[in-house]
């Protein structure tokens, strides 16, 4: 079960291609160098079938690392180069083909370049999603580009920016992939409207208690060019089904 707060609207992060990206790469490279020697020696996961619990754990480790370096959008030939570097690093007495300290800064440069290119592609796909949502019957598009569509009307009060709200929600990418859901956890969430992404701050103020609505959020009202890798790519348009259950009394 994925914890809500890692990719949730209540936890806005640093700006595009900031400390999070560099920290992410560091966290990924260290495990690759220290604990996945079997990957290079066995020629990749396609040649290995995990059978025992330990096998499955190591295979899952590879999946997790792969997702965390997804920012590089590696091509097949590039994956082979990564395997070669991994094998050389973990084989005693084998001399690396490049000087790591000299080339290491280029790792971050490449990650930034690949992330920016992918963000442009995501924004283009996202624009189509937003435009389609705006044309649906009953939809309202705000000046910020956010599209709101009421799925079930409510009769209660509407929150203001200083309020704390209680909600149920499901968040999806534009391709339909669900990246987070309070429904799956069977546990509503509470948060202050001042602590969420712009799409939620604006969108929930248009809702009434008891209402269920769909919010279509352009990337610049969600997680921007940085995204929340590996779950939410940079530049991604997000779609949320949100139920406004209550407005918490001020203490």
Write up what this structure looks like:
The protein has 251 residues and is α+β, with helices and mostly antiparallel strands. The chain folds into 2 domains: 103 residues, no CATH class; 122 residues, Chitinase A, domain 3, CATH 3.10.50.40. Helices cover 40% and strands 17% of the residues. It is built from 7 helices and 7 strands. Strands 1, 2, 3, 4, 5, 6 and 7 form a 7-stranded antiparallel beta sheet that branches. It is elongated, with a radius of gyration of 22 Å. The N terminus is likely disordered.
Q: How are the elements arranged and paired?
A:
Elements: H1 19-35, H2 37-42, H3 53-68, H4 76-90, H5 100-134, E1 139-141, E2 147-152, E3 164-173, E4 178-181, H6 182-185, E5 189-192, H7 198-205, E6 212-217, E7 238-247
Antiparallel strand pairs: 1-2, 2-6, 3-4, 3-5, 3-7, 6-7
